[in-house]
């Protein structure tokens, strides 16, 4: 046996090459695939030993001097700056828009950075190939070319916090050092990177969890499913780049059909053969470009994948084992690299040309010749240059310097930058081929702001007005044009300003242009506030009305010497000359409104000793001024008070120490530690055996006369003049009420206290600011604090009536408020109470805007304590002229404000032409660099105002190019200030590379979300014809072979990715953007169901979408250089595309809208066909991974994922059964998982063998069950469905494991 496993090593092979990271990978892959895991790990150990051995002998040292900056950097920066200056000049001449300038600047700096990167590599290679940084970066040991570029090249373009590119790059590198500005710009990206890392980790973890949940029940359950379908594999190509070559995609796959050599017709590989590295390489070398292989997508196994369809287990390079949980492996393989994917990019401001288009560069110096029959369309490039787009493919003539003719092919759709007979230089970009890849664009806007102030003039600018849904007028430019800002000083004036100058007049510097006034509405006594730090009085107050109490002074209580302190615990006292004292309820600076209380009289005449019942006697109260301070008393009268002491108890009745009707003396304990103060009779208020209150009513008991007292209404008040009063022989007013004590009814006679109310008020001596204008005054008011008949629950005394001082306001101005002031008298030791109505006026220094603050002057027109009339001017603010000039115009704006345009010396310039004939006319617009006369070039842009013999007078101005469909924010001849928005430019921005990649895109695909801006898809296959209507809208028609066509109208904003005459396939995109996979599935299914059976149409439609999803996921991972085997993605996509939606149940039990497995519904329909019933109709659906997880057969698995309550409730209502086919549900229940060593080996028994012995097995089964005790309760177990199918036990209930074992033993014996 030993000889069998003896390893004979092959002949040693010597390889003489530099081993870098890439070569190490190849070496390990070779060792693994040829010699297996054991010997590969042995090799890895030996390589590690070798590495460490040499690392101890020598290492890499790194110094600042190793960071070598290429000397060509200065030249590259100089050349780039010149190009940027040219672009800026174009922008200033109004030849390109601000967006085109920005895009050109971004692309220019990107090109410079790329060129410098290449120079860095070249410089290292040629001058210092053993440079430590160069060795590390290019061997793959540490770092990469991107980091080396930042160390010794230039850091390049950076993004701002919003993600927009800043068009000023960091030109220095880390070796040279960053400036403070560079450092701040760098920190934007650094912060974004930190945030992204945190978010990415969380998102990636959640994605992995969802993937595991959707695929956890996919296990390899059988060897071959006998499928009749396969998938076509070829090179995965994107944007003319091969992402994954065919050879890599074939590794570990199983062939669907036998492969023959295209040349010799010899068999290369057999059907169902698994492809190793050598076979895959041989297939590709034989010239075969595409191969049909088995795939999890086309596997016919129910709820699992077979061994042949899955292929290799990539961990050990052989066919996957039965029972392998490939779903979990797939989920982990896709989820694990998630953290490596960038969350989002920082390049949202602009896109580097190389990513969007393939450039065509001139092969030599020469001239281009274009034939007359040349069919082109003029377009404007993203850099604002005019170019031609070819409507057909042409072979054009290029002549070199020797006039030798060369033919060069330009494909249809190529953008050509040259005209006929135009010269070009070697390596000059003469054309561009737009990529038809997944270029997604988004509509964005950018504000066009003016850089100078002046007058707006439209030049060749056609505008049209539109009214939106809200009724706003939107002015836009359908064709675009030029917008001039003719220079001039603009002064903004508020609507209330008085203009002091006239149009077409000259003014001098510091002359008053306009004045704004501050006017007092009411008039009164002036009070000036102290000036601010700059010496300006910013606020003054006018006392329009005031009232002062002359016969009272404010005195403070002890420990408070300052009456202005707002101390509520120690309030001030207002003492009148007649001795009356009031407590102040307000303090200085408080605002007081009508009927608000100022002070409260200190008076004990209306104070009681306990609680009681109050009754009004011969007076009324005001219903209007009801407040917390009681009711205002009208007239004279008295208050009747029936005293009683109330205790709130809230305890159980068993704790009570007194009883109802009992007479108790003062100091008696009512309940524990509660004693009464007054003596009297007890009344108990209780509820549900809980004592709420105990009331002690003072008085005398009297026998109850049943003959006379029954006729009397009780309780009642009897005054002394009442005839009945005599019989009770008690003086004073009495209050009678019946009561019971120990079931004996008696009459209680209670004393009544009377409090007299008179009209005697404290005399107020008032002084008014203006005796004719008594808007506010102070008066006294008496208020009763309780309602008539109200029971006051208290054991202590209360105040029944209080006297207040209140402010009263004239009825014409009820909402007026006054300020409380304490006016000092007698050397500031005592104070008087004064109420004042103030008018506060703000004196603004920036009436004419913040920008004009330095040329405004404010003058006060009043002095302290001056008495002024209403309508008087208090202050004036003047706007002064900044310099000498000419008032060109005074415009009134929509907001009723005014704008003054003043022309100064700098706004108009004279250009000498020395008597030569001018080539321009008055009113023309000229740009800097234009020729205005022979050999005379203008250095100024603007409008020609005047032409005479020797000079041309130009009014300076700046032109701004406005693109089509821009929204204008200004009108012709309106005036604007620097920084104002002239227009909002609307443009398309391409999103490629990282922007549409990364985790968000993976999530979008796997959750089957509809893209925000989906592309339009072809509704039928056919040939495309393009046409344009009058409004420049594109009309696309797709003609199919039978003459039918579909028509699409595209607006100018939608970017087409097809050309005239193209042949297009079904569901191919016509415009840019990501396709909607749901729409794609619908198109394929509807197309196929007209041509084939429903089941076949659903299968084929799903297969097309499956291929799209797999390729999309691979595209994202490949863009980040992450390699994942196709089969993992196919396993997940299989789960997403396994269900169909029932549209019509037919004669089946299925309901419309129900989601069912495709295979399951097809089996039901086959049964319907046999019974001649109506089959169910359905359409395939694409489910995201979350929905897929929740729609799984296992409710236990779904509940453990999310929405636990909902899933379990629905399962209970529907009476669902869980067959425990997956891993999660078995773990939760506590069973052995049906994978790995727990995979049921009964599956190894062949179907034929079992079916032949069917009768014997079933007999044995029956025999076994008979032997069991019928009364014994047997434990139910759950059986895997494939085992049950093999043993034909689907219809027979299985009661214990012994039965299975015996059946299996019988089959072995036979």
Q: Please give the alpha-carbon distance between the first and last residues.
A: 32 Å
Strand order of the largest sheet: 31-32-33-35-54-52-38-37
What does the overall shape look like? extended
Mean pLDDT: 83
Residue stretches low in confidence (pLDDT < 50, at least 5 long) are 1-5, 344-355, 1241-1280, 1289-1310
Radius of gyration, whole Å = 49 Å
Number of strands: 77
What helical percentage do the residues reach? 10-25%
- Helix tally equals 24
Query: Which class of secondary structure composition applies to the elements?
Result: alpha+beta
Strand content: 25-35%
Query: Biggest sheet, in brief?
Result: 8 strands, antiparallel
Which characteristics define this entry?
1310 residues, alpha+beta, 8-stranded antiparallel β-sheet, 7-stranded antiparallel β-sheet, 24 helices, 77 strands, disordered N terminus, disordered C terminus
